[in-house]
Structures are given as structure tokens and as C-alpha cells.
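Model it.
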Amino acid sequence: MKFTVEQHVLADGVNWVSRSLSNRPIMTALLGIVIEVEEGQVFLSGSDLETSSKSNFAADVSQSGKVLVPGKLLAEISRALPNKPVTVQLDGSRVLVTSGTAKFTLPTLSLNDYPNLPEIPEATGIIASDVLATAVAQVAIAAGRDDSLPTLTGIHVEINQDTMTLAATDRYRLAVREVQWQATQPNLETAALLRARTLADATKSLTGTKNVSLSLTGLTSHDRLAGFVSDGKSMTSRMLDGTFPPYRHLLPQNITTTAVVEVAQFLDSVRRVALVTDKTVPLRLSFTDSTLELEAGAGEEAQATEALEISLTGEPIDIAFNPVFLADGLQAVGTPYVQISFTGSNKPAILMGKAELSSEPIENYRYLLMPMRYAS
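Modeled.
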């Protein structure tokens, strides 16, 4: 086995595949990346049995072959190599990686122990890579981090023909984003629960491409897989088991108060005032006719207050939020202004973006935030 390719091409392919490697795999072979060389093409693959990634690229091939090498080490080496052509060749039981005067020798792992990786399911639809990455990032912030509650660590993907709805919750907040996409099957309706970290990492890495083909196996399929394909890169990930909690009834309808605030100023104020406390202590907010007052700390502890100009419709309201969760939501709306809708001081509030102070709210993204109790 021997091939030569540009450093950035090798690094890009290896980095993509190495994302699926586990630091503590159940078998030694899963520490490795498979390099398979055929006429004019190099194929890379890696897996932790939950997620599998593949990439391929054109190369100057001198000799075909197949080998398994330590994946994390190959990733570090490929990134560190000089920006010159790289030659990779098998020499006995070792793999030599050469670029300019830099030379590395890697051990090989047993290919006989390497499992067969799943194939990509039939494509379900196509979406612009940047649109998908933005939508996933907006939702993933609300996913749970507690692996003892696996259902809440996922993003619920619901397909209704040409509309895709993404949702995630950790019980303290809920993020929902609707996007339009191009379904490949008529009257398509399906749903899947995907790992938030895997989905966010994959979609972010694919933003340099134009479109992503998304594949979701049917609800009755034995092997519940999601697949992503874009420009020589692919990934499959096993879906999470369990049922995502029903959430649409949580989105409040009877709004009594709405406030419109400039996001950049609001975000800066939240971060400043929250300096005197931590994320478990509520940040108190008082919305009046044209002013929002932020307050944190009490008694003998450190305290901070700050005031902002706002536009308020409806009755004044006092409420408290987790400052970290509030800041996450303000960043996620991705617009110059945010509209916060209230139904009461002890009920969830909804954040939606606004392009301008007087424009309509952008309803394809909603960030629901539960209030916190605080001593008055």
C-alpha cells in the first residue's frame, strides 16, 4: 500500500473519521482508522459501534492495499505535518508517513478484529448544510447532559413532508426550530431521536459543503440508523431508544406581556450582573413600561444591578431565570432583537428573534425558559 496526497486533503479526511473514535473502546481494533487504497482513491473509516464515519479522496496511488492504524495518533500527525505532499506507505508491519523532511512510523492493528460497518440507509431528503448546522446548534444547547437520562440528551427530529422540526429539552428549557428541506419521498412522515452531541458535531463539520443528504431508517426498521452524506464524507449513528416527551402543549398561547430588547446589550448585562452569583442562583428581572432592571445577589452577599431600555406591551412583570440558560437563549436567536413573551411570573417564557424593533417575530425558532423561584 502506498499513496501520495496533499496534507490538507489527508488532514480533512482523517479529522472527519477520527470524530467517531472512542477513547475507551470495547475492543482494541476500534482505536484504529482503516485506510483502504484502490486505484486513484483512498477510503478511510472509523467507528465506536454507535457512530461510524467514512471519507474518501483522490490520491496518487502507487500500490493498493488495506491497513488499520491508531486513529487519534494519525489525526494528530496529519494536522501537524507541513503543508506539502504526504506519502503514506505500508512497510512490513509498520506504516510510514512522510512529508518533506518530517517522517513518522506508525504501528498497525489487527484488521481481522475490525467489525463490518453499517451502510448508509436510503436518502430521506436533502438540506443546505449551513441551514442544518445553524438549526441544530440552536436546538442542541437545550439538550440534557445527564447520560442517566439518555432520552433528554437527544434532538428529536420530526419530518412532515418538506418541513423538518428539531426539538431538545433538559426539563428546564426547550428549544424548537422548524426548517424547510427537500424530501425525497412523497407524503413523508417520520421521526427520530438522535444524539445531540453527535448531530451538532457532524453538521458543524459539514458546513464547508453545499448540501447534506439525510437518511433516517423507518420506525419499523430493525437497525435504527441515521445517516449523513456530503462531498466524500458520510456518517451513520444509531438512534436513541425511548420516547421524546410531548412538548407542543408547553408553548404558551395566552400571552399577557411581551418585551422587546436589543440582544447585544441584554447579553452583556446578563453576563455582568451574573458575575456576583453562580448558575444555580436566579437572576431577577423586572420589566416595566420602558425599563428592564436586572438584579443578582442578596443580603450580605455580593450584589449587582443594571438597567436597560426596552419596549414593553402589556402588564409589568417580575421574573427570575437561570443566567446561563438565559444567555444561551439570547445567543441562539441569532438576531439583533429578541422578543420575550410571558404568561405569568411563575410560568415559562418564550424567546423569539426579531430582525428589527418594529418587525414581526421570527416564529421558526422558539426558546422556552422555565422561571426560577427566588426570595423576594
